[in-house]
Amino acid sequence: MPQKNRTVRGVLGGLVGLVGLSAVAGLLVAASVTPVLTMTGLAGTQALTLFDQLPENLNPGTPMEQSTIYATTPDGKNVALASFYEQNRVPVTYEQVSPVLYDAILSSEDKSFYSHGGVNVGATVKALIDNVRGTSSRGASTISQQYVKNVLIQECEQKVDTTSETHNEDLQQCWKDATNATGADGIERKLQEMRYAIQIEKDFSKNDILLGYLNIANFGGTVYGIEAAANYYFNTTSAKLTVAQAATLAGIVQNPNTYRIDKPEGTVTNSKGEALNTAESGYALTKDRRHYVLGRMLADGKITQAQYDEADASEITPSLNPPTQGCASAGANAYFCQYVKSIVLNDEAFGKEPQDRADLLRRGGLKIYTSLDYRIQDPAAQAMKDIVPANYDNDYFGAAGVSIEVGTGRILSITQNTQFDETSTDDLAKSSLVFAGDMKNGNSGGFQVGSVYKLFTLIDWLEKGHSVNEVLNGRVQTNMKFTTASCGGGTLIADTKEIGNFGGGGGYTASVMDFTRQSLNSGYFAMASKLDICEINQVADRMGVTLANGTKVTKENVVYDVLGPKNISPIAMANAYATVASGGKYCTPRAIDRVVGPDGKDRELPKSSCTDGVISKEVAATAAYALQGVMSGGGTGARANPFDGTPLIGKTGTHDRWSTMMIESSTKVTTAVWAGRWKGQSDIYQKWAGNYQLNNMRYPLALAAQAAANGAYGGDAFPRPDNNLTRRVLTEVPNVVGMTMDEARSTLESRGFSVTDGPAVDSDQPTNIVVAQDPSGQAAGGATVTISPSNGQGTTVPGNLAGMSRADAAAALGAAGFTSIDFDNSCNPPNAVVSSTDPAPGTATSKSTAVRVTCE
């Protein structure tokens, strides 16, 4: 059986140390190559000088390795989502390689590996002479020399610009330059290879050199290293290779693109143009090479005759396991993967220049551990698959969901209805855009988020000291006045009837709590009219919200910003609500928890931070108090509430008839869902896909994700709202008695009060004059004021009737409009005068009132 862990001391029995071997080899080479170089026209002294002047230090460095993005299962296991590579390579340790593979490589490539000093002098000199004479082009390289050659190829390849149009040709030239074995250039290349081989034998152990060679060597196409080769060709690991498999791979490495066994149609042709090494031929060339390897192993005593017979008689039957690189291999997690990939490609933590970052991803051997949480991702992705078709009507209908951990900014889940595909296609079921992201991370232009943007009006309202119980006239109004004074603008006049309310309602007078619960557009316009549009957008800016293209939301400030017409990413909006749920702490969204380099050391992460007090705790608690009403039985977001006992805040959003959102949050996790047209503005209302209307799909999608989040993370009660910000607000009611009914109504409504007409009141005023109002003095803002007009039937009992004669009193009462006068018998005597009346003189009453007169 082959030894598992061999050392130079064990092989040489302590006779000669490796440094001694290397030094001797150097002297032998210097002396032996002189006649070879003389054949090329160089004098002996020149030949020796040439060898001495060649560089002797080679730093093998780290070969190009694939980078892998991982997620972590609830039990702590790291699961690969996707890998990215230019060369498919999975480095292994010495113990992870089967001893039979070492035996196969050494017997066929360099049986004296453990006894030479890096160079087989005799074989090399003979090969050099044959190369000069043109009688052979063999290399006679030791494993150490082959390792050097591969390192030199790798160094060259790492300098190739992967975006260049000549990328493939440049890579091919690297191989040609490092393997050229003819002419003076070939000799100098060989001498340099030998010089380096002698040096690395001083710097590294034999085992390290052998393993380094197996980890860096090409095994055909983009397959590099023994582990990737075992995985690809035989769907196994390098630790589990059989004798036949090990001999096959040892044969392939000798001439990878001739002996590779993944091309059934063959890899080379003969002089007649006939394909060779085809599957039909049983991969004849590779089989011949395997036969040679097995023969060498048998001759060296590394395998028994029985093992040889069995392996040599077996057919070459590849079990191909093609590696899939890129986020398409992540399945339902592909869009989360793509978001992470975009961070690597765009954040300077991974390199200053775009090309540096791209090269690092495909060559740098990074292990990228993400924040994805399968406990949320799996249920959310399943709901997305069950509810939203990948392509509903060939008119760009899409949906996306994201969940973010409150207080950290960690993105726990990203889902999308389309099938991930980075190729250009007309199939609208496929896309590489990450709808939840923005232009920088996800290449998405964002969406018009609608009324979820009302959050920032609510926050500004509270920060200005207003109460959520303040009552306003929330009716649709024309010619409303707004200001942008804080950013140097002026007064804006807007006809909010152009927008109106969802369903066409005219609005009503109510509190901010009511406006929020029912998402009343006209109510929020009433709030905004008492604020500053610029300052509302500044709140959004402060809470980390930008347009999806990276522009600040404060760049333009218009009245309709209150209702969310700007294109913003779902991640940005989710994070703003997470800020409220956290008590005012804003954390930049992040999807990467840890990055480990090929050296096993942690790398710097993209910059992220959490900032307390972005909004005050009092404002955050009171905003949450109002937003909890949205998720209650009467709120617009109730359909997305799992009602599992976890307190939730939330907000719905609709922009026109093509874009909808639902955002909800516990104190632990925030979920945002968008559904609508990701291109174009076609109506999505009154249209069904399966059991759901397109405009209502946001509710079950958000419910599934948030229910999963509640189950995994729980949630606490939100803090109590601030007493001052929930106070009952009273305001002065204008006195409108004496005004016409129209004047009174206009005056009261302009102050935010609702007006209703009361019954006509007896008065001598004209019938369109207000003669009574209720309430007067102070009332709650926006309260209803009842105004009563005169009925024109009012009069007053004359105040000077006392002392009048019966006739004079009758005339005076008749002149006042009374139609029913009853004189007491005491008024019958001719000299009788009025002593009293009922009603008394000066009393205001109706003309139809009967007046009784008493005399004396």
Task: Please explain how this structure is put together.
- Helix 13 (284-299) packs antiparallel against helix 14.
- A five-stranded antiparallel beta sheet has the order 9-8-23-22-21, with helices on both faces. The chain has a four-stranded mixed beta sheet with strand order 2-1-7-19. Strands 27-30-28 form a three-stranded mixed beta sheet, with helices on one face.
- The longest helix is centred in the first third of the chain and has 22 residues, at 18-39.
- By secondary structure, the chain is α+β, with helices and mostly antiparallel strands.
- The protein starts with 7 loop residues before the first helix and ends with a strand.
- It contains 26 helices and 35 strands.
- It is rod-shaped, with a radius of gyration of 44 Å.
